[in-house]
């Protein structure tokens, strides 16, 4: 069994492979003139399709794909994503690529800066704008966070193709129950200490959100401050960050098969955004956030000052699940055992924007 | 009466793979054509090159420089610069890459 990890960095894409998830071979970089903001491994077809998106400094945004595990990349002649002329908008960056479920082959979603959701029905070769979200009356109130103003999280509902959840910074969680035609903000219960109380419905800086694999009505989110859980598909949220050393962080990921299991990477909040105690550590809950445990066995024990960005933590589909983090100082660490122990995959890469991992054979 | 003029479009090295490997392309355009019209012609032949020069609103990308007869054109209005017979339009990446 080979596990493939896509590592998107500020200056190119790296691919790491392992047979045992403990020893890794890291490729030479590809897409080297590109900032790689989003990657995806679509394992639904006969052969895995790799997708990568982002923005180049000079030449604008891009979204490319590879059907030979990165040996060659297909860059369409015509832009795979482009705002319709009447919007007067232009894509600045592609921040998210999300293959839909196996029941909807060919459907791939993308999230961009400025905040927009895009749907592809041809595996990511071409996308159309989801007008319902673009036309939302809140759009003019959505503001950029430090990374820009983008849709960064797309959560299809596995059992109901009419239901779809996205998250954006800023703005927050928005849900559709009619296949994207209309959207409602879904941030009730989330505190926003940078807003007047009560916060406006568009005023949430969701950093990342994830859906539970067993109970699709259960979501978790890492907010700008606070980790929250919803058991009603995002209609309401309750805090679950007691037991974490900080309620601030960027990523949150859920287990591919086991309920109530999630990982976060806490950072000090506005006092530096480095790991609390300057110690690199992943934290995991296995009970829906009632308790958390620190996981750092095998991670560097020297002082550590780098952050993990919102898409730079992921899980694979192995058993036990593998967990991966990429850091802004260019390190990638892998855990083959759900976070219990860690090994270094790479160091001294450009700063890591995103990682995704999957079993490919 | 609109006459035709001959203009040359020269592409910086990073753009050439997206334009069939061409370093320069010759176009015949109406004598009232501007830079935007020339880039429309490029888009018809080599869309992958053209979309790297302008975004989907038609605006020149921030870190792309366009020169007409060696003179840089403004980013916001440069596509409106009218071309004359024999004009040479050059597209290069800007010097701003160090910000990465």
Spatial strand sequence of the major β-sheet of chain A: 3-2-1-27
Q: Would you report the number of β strands of chain A?
A: 27
Please give the radius of gyration of chain A in angstroms: 19 Å
Mean pLDDT of chain A: 96
> Structural class of the helix and strand makeup of chain B?
alpha+beta
Secondary-structure-derived class of chain A: mainly beta
Estimate the strand proportion of chain A: 35-45%
**What is the chain-wise order of helices and strands of chain A?**
EEEEEEEEEEHEEEEEEEEEEEEEEEEE
Largest sheet of chain A: 4 strands, antiparallel
Strand order of the largest sheet of chain B: 2-1-5-3-4
- Written as H for each helix and E for each strand, in order along the chain, the element string of chain B is EEHHEEE
Query: Count the helices of chain B. How many?
Result: 2
Largest chain interface and its two residue counts? A-B, 21 and 20 residues
Percent helix of chain B, as a range, is 10-25%
Helix content of chain A: under 10%
Categorize the overall geometry of chain A.
globular
